[in-house]
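Appendix B. Raw example, untouched.
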Amino acid sequence: MMRANPVQAFLCLALMIVVIASGCRGRQFAHVLKDSQQDVVGTHEAGAETFNPLVEQAVGSLLARQNQAVDLAGFQGDMNRPKRICFVGLENRSSEELGDFYDQLYQQIDTLLANSEEVEPISGRFVDAGLSLARLQPQELFIPANMQEFSAIMQQQGQPFDYLLFGTLTSGTTESNADYQRDYLLTLELIDVRTGTSEKESAKVRKGYHKTALGKAIKYNPFRR
């Protein structure tokens, strides 16, 4: 009985792997993540693993401050009712395109506000309609004449408001040879339209990007001081 040549056996195995890989080319596999499972981590830019905690932390901090203000006021005067908030949108000033995440982030923020007892947000559909009728972009509302026109339109729709809410996403990148760290910051600014005073709450997520898995292991070795 002839013994198989090791070189021939290796080449045969390599050929089988190539054939199998070629047959699977173009196919894609997916699975539904359970709530207990971690989000998939984006390898080139931010994704759910970054945006979800940013929204939860920033909105949570904003609502906590409103709740604290109500407690300190002792439910006196206007504090008997939640603040009427007009959320006019999210501005992306980060180094990455948001793509389909833009609308999702807007809806996440709007939903958290709508489900809270600390504030009373106006429906985004009314806000969009008001801005469209006034032919204004959100940043143009700081011009007094524009604000008066927008407020009048919202009054006509039966949607008066006390505060404007702006969201801004920024990023900062620190490079280290082939690897880099990117810090994502979501800031929510609440502006009193009567006085112009504002308050801000922010949330930050730091994320490392590496060319190789070895690069990550070297930089984040748990035994390294």
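End of appendix B.
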